[in-house]
Amino acid sequence: VNWLIDIPNDSFYCRAKTRYRQTEQEAEVIPLSATTVRVNFEKPQRAITSGQSVVFYDGERVLGGGIID
């Protein structure tokens, strides 16, 4: 995960997406380390695949993102 904010220590809710044209979805981001998180989407997501990116948003602001493992 690459952060554009201070590295979070606690879980937080935001909007996230895994595809460029996808609508942002509600998600919980749970930090596991400075470079690894677990993302729990509020609703099941279709066809998430290793190697894709996930990006976290707060409104128009990008919080960070990473490569799905």
Looking at this protein, list some descriptive labels.
69 residues; mainly beta; six-stranded antiparallel β-sheet; 6 strands; 48% strand
Describe the structure.
The protein has 69 residues and is mainly β. Helix content is 0%, strand content 48%. It has strands spanning 2-3, 12-17, 25-31, 37-41, 53-58, 61-67. A 6-stranded antiparallel β-sheet has the order 1-6-5-2-3-4, with no helix packed on it. Strand 5 and strand 6 form a beta hairpin. It is globular.
* Global geometry: globular
Poorly predicted runs are none
> Could you tell me the strand content as a percent range?
over 45%
Physical arrangement of strands within the biggest beta sheet: 1-6-5-2-3-4
Roughly how many Å is the radius of gyration? 11 Å
End-to-end C-alpha gap:
11 Å
Order of helices and strands: EEEEEE
Report the average pLDDT across residues. Answer: 95
List strands and helices in order, with pairings.
Blueprint: E1 2-3, E2 12-17, E3 25-31, E4 37-41, E5 53-58, E6 61-67
Antiparallel strand pairs: 1-6, 2-3, 2-5, 3-4, 5-6
How would you summarize this macromolecular structure in one to three sentences?
The chain has 69 residues and is mostly beta strands.
